[in-house]
């Protein structure tokens, strides 16, 4: 099993039940026309980083969300809130994760993140 | 019990065994000469934010550390690595927390954080 | 008078004349469904921070706007430009506040902020 | 030739063939109503900074794009991708410039930038 | 009077009484060996930006300090705290400026800034 | 040749003449005690990212330096200024790279970077 396939295995744990692992070991991405390796690098990162021991998938999702709240990465935050739900986090835990960032980031970052959380939950 | 006292109770869970809760409900801080309310606000934040339900103290420590890695707040990162150890995280878990930030922050932030983790552990 | 009520008093100075202080000491917020304490924390911050001595409300509004320009917090910048106008700043002073950030932030942050200032003024 | 005129000369190298240098030495800008000097400062920066020796215009465009990717300045990134194309960079070189930022910034910043590159190229 | 000389006039208002305007219209800087125009650009920025109407020098100093607190620019923060004192701000006002950044930046940025304020005041 | 070995080949182009490729395919790093995979990931990134076509090694070094200036990553900036020199950039080109960041980042980031450039050159 190569890096990409190992990555897909770990990646699937953060996707909802309807998600199907690509059979030919390839995964299409809207960015293929400008950066055809980009999707592969993301998937490989799941194998190399998310697949490591000592922390479970819920804890890793919380860490990623805290980092995205802090850097104000809104599109990715919406994506990773969904992956966090798929990994087993409740919406209360996701709200607490964002709230826990408040004393270390201030109101603007946290407000932006809570708006995104609300949008994802209401979808 | 007022906000400060409630905060001290939660704060004590992140301090080592030698730490003693101030008896007179006051806590000296090096910054008292320029901002005498600053320490109080920190302690109150422990009661208001860390003391909330849905996430345990290890999860909250991981979230804070991920945020500090992301913003490159080195002094505070050293402090919160120690508090994470006091809250029960192992040094392997702390290393994984920082490593999990790699795909979302890149090498510089993570390298700086690992250097600080190494210094704290070696102390 | 508790923290929230004290905060409401200070907060009202940054709101336009049509704003009415909530009578039941509660204030609805779109984020109540995900983080029901969030609005309360903001209001309390007005009492704890904005309500302090040594700087007047115009100076505090300038400081907040400079910080929001620097962190690129666009939604909050629009809000605080309006609050600055309510606090008595002229649109020329608001433009100068953003322009004064230019040598310390560069063109992108300042251009984004001027676009927002223009939108708020034209509304 | 004053600073503004010198700036216009350098600026023209980053504009497409249809762009015409303003004849009266003035250049209108949507931000004139709030900050009438803002456009002049940008043009002067082309004379003072872009017009310097040791690096050519393609290299300067790559540097600016790398900085804008890093700070997540999306509107300005779209503008400078177009200027980079006008300065002679290929779309492959622009994609590589953004990809080279990946190990130092992580996936979110780079994904946002690739989305913008794709939009500019497809226009 | 050229840009540099106009800049020196405005710059002198932020320097202490012992500071003497360079007689030959030139100003030495430690960075001259790598970037001989750098000091000139800073001085010119004082004429172009600080010298504008609608805000006084204390207000401009507060805005700059708020921006430097937000971006965590420690060396420049120490410099501009001194210039703020020279411009007539009291140490209490400087502390309040930093404290006013707390709700919008969180504890780490503000703590770092207060440590620097304390160092400058104690010097 | 695996990823690490391919990475070492590309990495060697950014190292000075005295640098020797590790014979056993392993490379010691001060961070091995906390994150033994960290050095391998860096080296692999050289093979995966720096080793790509369309941009030469000088251009890639300029892009990385521009990104590090922008994020204020001082330790890594010193390292990559040295690697830029090894890749064939002159000290004048390195100064221009940092200066080109000025209009997009402002004085603090650029001043910090020029101080580091000066230190590296004087070593």
TrEMBL record, chains A, B, C, D, E, F:
<dbReference type="InterPro" id="IPR052512">
    <property type="entry name" value="4CMD/NDH-1_regulator"/>
</dbReference>
<protein>
    <submittedName>
        <fullName>4-carboxymuconolactone decarboxylase</fullName>
    </submittedName>
</protein>
<dbReference type="GO" id="GO:0051920">
    <property type="term" value="F:peroxiredoxin activity"/>
</dbReference>
<dbReference type="InterPro" id="IPR003779">
    <property type="entry name" value="CMD-like"/>
</dbReference>
<dbReference type="Pfam" id="PF02627">
    <property type="entry name" value="CMD"/>
</dbReference>
<dbReference type="InterPro" id="IPR029032">
    <property type="entry name" value="AhpD-like"/>
</dbReference>
<feature type="domain" description="Carboxymuconolactone decarboxylase-like">
    <location>
        <begin position="36"/>
        <end position="118"/>
    </location>
</feature>
